[in-house]
Design a protein that fits this description.
The structure holds 2 protein chains of 2 kinds. By secondary structure, chain A is mostly helical. Chain A has a single domain, classed as Arp2/3 complex 21 kDa subunit ARPC3, CATH 1.10.1760. In chain A, helix 3 crosses helix 5, helix 3 crosses helix 7 and helix 6 crosses helix 7. The radius of gyration of chain A is 16 Å and the shape is globular. In chain A, 49% of the residues are buried. Chain B is an alpha+beta fold. Classes of the chains: A mainly alpha, B alpha+beta. At the A-B interface, helix 1, helix 2, helix 4, helix 5 and helix 6 of A face helix 2, helix 3, strand 1 and helix 4 of B.
């Protein structure tokens, strides 16, 4: 329960920041993608299942506000969380290289998915342009933000795990 | 004991993934094909997020404002002096126009044109932008409780901003005319020739313009700088709203139609407040019938 509430709060805060503060601070009208950082971080920190649920919920929030086709973002974020969860085995808290790589790949895959499903199907074929002017700038900005955001998420997760461990011992 | 019971009830992640995927795909089809509204979720999301969004957005626009302000302060000081001189000049001009205004009003009454462009409007503030970088949509702080419905037109200043695509009780989502998915049936004001104005992410971020196509300008009268407004034949936009000015004009390969670019009348980077026109195209039409 404590974990669910905390995760909800994190998504809540990140969604708000992403749609308000970071849109105002956008460089060349490109804003970072905080939600993909949250979803994939919890994916590889907590495993496939939790990553999947967190991704699904995040996408659902996104759909409620911006979805023209309902369920699209839920689907994309859910797969992002699930796929990141498969790398839990290789995840070590002290190492920032793997999280950085996973988040970068997630961000690229997410944006390519959005491009294919929402741009290419409408006949916008200049992928090179979109790659250079949307996907890569967003990637750079997201990775910069991730360097700040990821340690915070890691700390929160470690705190939660410590609390869960303690209460687990108490009850068993 | 406790642990074993728990693990037995647990469904493997793989199956959950499949079932949730199917759920998402069904939802996508439902909203795409049958236009099923997801109102309960909108309502819940609206009450959870909108109040906070309003608050944080003020901080955001303040921070963004500070960023911009510092850079512009010197420019503004110089500009201020210039403008002061201009104000004096314009005040005298205004009094002349006011006189003419009375004449125009009299004539309008004669022609019974006055009613046509008077739409009922409601003011709203922008409180959030699209979280991705692909689209140009934003959230405003008025919703169905204030009488806003899907397909209502949104303007700022004198220009068209976009159209309402999604409504919650206390928020509404507006898709702007520069959004890549948007298309408006428009006409050139001087010649009344029709064309389609299409938002384009690439053109917008490269040159701050949007494209138009299928302009049938047989007499070759349309020129750069002509104003483009929403047309009478548009199914969703009320007629006569200013979209922008022609920036570039080319004859298409078929030699029949022209296409080019338009500079939008609204500064989409810096809009904060908009007006929602409460008269929808449908109701405008039925009122006229």
């Amino acid at each position: 329960m404590r974990r669910k509430l905390t995760v909800f709060l994190i998504i809540f805060v990140c969604f708000l920041l992403q749609t308000t503060l970071f849109q105002a601070l956008a460089f060349a009208s490109i804003a970072p993608n905080l939600l993909i950082v949250v979803v994939s971080s919890f994916g590889f920190m907590r495993g496939r299942k939790e990553g999947m649920y967190i991704g699904f919920f995040t996408g659902l929030v996104f759909d409620a506000f911006y979805g023209t086709i309902f369920g699209f973002y839920a689907l994309v974020y859910m797969y992002a969380g699930y796929c990141n969860g498969m790398f839990r085995k290789f995840f070590f808290p002290d190492d920032i290289k793997l999280p950085m790589l996973l988040i970068s790949v997630s961000d690229i895959v997410y944006n390519v998915a959005v491009y294919i499903l929402k741009f290419m199907f409408r006949g916008q074929f200049h992928f090179g342009y979109y790659l250079l002017h949307v996907i890569i700038p967003e990637l750079v900005y997201t990775v910069l933000i991730m360097i700040v955001l990821y340690p915070v998420l890691l700390k929160i997760n470690q705190k939660l795990e410590a609390v869960e461990k303690r209460s687990g011992i108490k009850f068993v | 004991m406790r642990r074993r019971r728990k693990s037995r009830r647990r469904i493997p992640a793989k199956y959950m993934l499949w079932s949730l995927s199917v759920l998402c795909i069904i939802a996508m089809f439902a909203s795409f094909l049958f236009d099923v509204p997801f109102t309960p979720l909108n309502t819940a999301a609206g009450y959870a997020f909108i109040p906070m969004q309003k608050g944080i957005n003020q901080i955001g626009s303040w921070a963004g404002g500070v960023k911009d302000n510092l850079a512009k302060l010197a420019d503004v000081m110089a500009e201020n002096e210039q403008l002061q001189a201009q104000v004096d000049e314009l005040t005298t001009e205004l009094s002349i126009y006011k006189m003419e205004q009375y004449d125009i009003e009299d004539m309008r009454k004669l022609l019974d044109l006055d009613e046509q462009y008077k739409y009922e409007k409601i003011g709203a503030s922008i409180i959030g932008k699209d979280a991705g970088n692909w689209f140009d949509t934003f959230i405003i702080d008025k919703g169905s409780k204030d009488g806003i419905e899907v397909d209502m037109n949104v303007i700022a200043g004198s220009g068209l901003v976009g159209i309402v695509t999604n409504v919650g009780p206390n928020f509404a989502n507006v898709r702007s005319i520069i959004d890549d998915r948007n298309s408006v049936s428009a006409m050139v004001l001087t010649t009344s020739d029709k064309c389609f104005v299409n938002g384009d992410l690439e053109m917008m971020s490269e040159k701050q313009v949007i494209g138009f196509t299928d302009l049938s300008d047989e007499k070759n009268k349309a020129a750069i700088g002509d104003q483009v407004v929403t047309s009478y034949t548009s199914s969703k936009y009320v007629p006569g709203l200013l979209i922008g000015q022609i920036n570039e004009l080319n004859t298409d390969a078929n030699n029949l139609t022209k296409s080019g670019t338009i500079t939008p009348a609204v500064d989409f980077e810096h809009i904060k407040h908009v007006l929602v026109i409460l008269d929808k195209k449908q109701s405008v039409q039925s009122a006229q019938n």
